[in-house]
Amino acid sequence: MFNKVLVANRGEIALRVMRACRDLGVRTVAIYSDADKHAGHVRFADEAYNVGPARAADSYLDHEAVIEAGRKAGADAVHPGYGFLAENAEFARKVEMSELTWIGPSADAMERLGEKTKARSLMQEADVPVVPGTTEPVESAAEVKEIAAEYGYPVAIKAEGGGGGRGLKVVRSEDEVESQLETAQREGEAYFDNASVYVEKYLEAPRHVEVQILADEHGNVRHLGERDCSLQRRHQKVIEEAPSPALDADLRERIGEAARRGVSEADYTNAGTVEFLVEDGEFYFMEVNTRIQVEHTVTEEVTGIDVVKWQLRVAAGEELDFSQDDVEIDGHAIEYRINAENAADEFAPATGTLETYDPPGGIGVRVDDAVRQGDEIGGDYDSMIAKLIVAAGDRTECLARSERALSEFEIEGLATIVPFHRLMLTDEAFRAGEHSTKYLDEELDRTRIDRAVEKWGSADASAGSNDGDGNDGGDGDMTEREFTVEVNGKRFEVNLEERGAPPVPDLDAVGNGGSTAGRGGGATRSRPDEATGEDA
Prior knowledge:
This protein is an alpha+beta fold. It is built from 16 helices and 24 strands. Strands 13-12-9-10-11-14-21-19 form an eight-stranded antiparallel beta sheet, sandwiched between helices. Strands 3-2-1-4-5 form a five-stranded parallel beta sheet.
């Protein structure tokens, strides 16, 4: 096993990976931008290194800066989390060529599965059903029209490197072909540096079902059941659950085995997710996510298998110690993404201070986060501040427990989508498990969201009365302050005490002011046992 792992990410996923490392006795290294110098993942890690300014392209996406931080720290390996560089084959190859180990699939496997046309061809070779369409890029409107004539309108034009709905354009008639093709190519170039597109039959109301995979370097491939991610807004997942309420036993077995065949054909190792569209009792391959997923948590809850810990163990050369028959699905789990967004304003991102942050607890309730009360939520990165995962014996009990947990989740100071989640628990289609990927965008009455925000949302909290220095502004007998300093890019925390003096003014050696102490302990320390391992 590794001695020290650099986590090339931020927020709750960075903290999730660090906790898995701690469970295995592995030390952790955080990276952070100027905007994140007091962030939860930084407070939790054993060491932390600044990799640049707030702009992600100049920090978290800077290949050389990330690898150099690993070298400075003496790390053995790099875990990319999700987002940022997690599916960047170029970065993975740079790590593979360095003295560091890449915790994920090989760069070659990422390239084979990263381009959608290559992935479709590979899946067809493995006898995995794909949506009818092309396995080679198309370049002209005439080609699109020819395909549409064969399969019928509507068809979807998709960017080869696409995801999250970017570079996806639906063509419903012949007169839309040229404009939609041009737009898809332009978006593919802008978002993914790849203007190639392909065409497939457009499914009108599918379910989005994905299968979690683990594969080791010894030829073992296991699937951990499926997740249903059909509740989406503009192709962005909002609520995910396991198992899917839309699959019967036969379809569940077929889709799981198809996922195993597909990744075996790709010579794939480590964790991954094979995504499918399901409609009218049939399933079709969509794509492979060559990384850990946001929603891996629900799989962990129903299988008892720590997916992130296995990522580390597989990358260290260990063999999966369970068979496919050993994987059992027990109960039901649902994940609610707690985004800093105003659902009543088209889910616009929200910023502000977490004046109140009091997550729920109790049996069957898990919260993955990297924030604490008083933290500033800025607009530099994604809007998700936490994940609420609820597990129970069956879906009915899970929905009831979800109502309790969401009602206990107190957040004030900025808007979140907690009211939206509470609304969905009253929604007949969602409760019945009958929603498709189009439900939120095309069927849900928008005024219901407005009423939910009015009913369950909270007004912005006023600033607290604490003087901000970590004490009550006492009589000056003793003042203790914690400063953050950087030496050659490495972060250190220094505690100073002065007796018989007035309170120390609100200074910070790095800038941005305020205390950096968190429930997870200091971000960088020479005594790693100071970290408590509590939630950050």
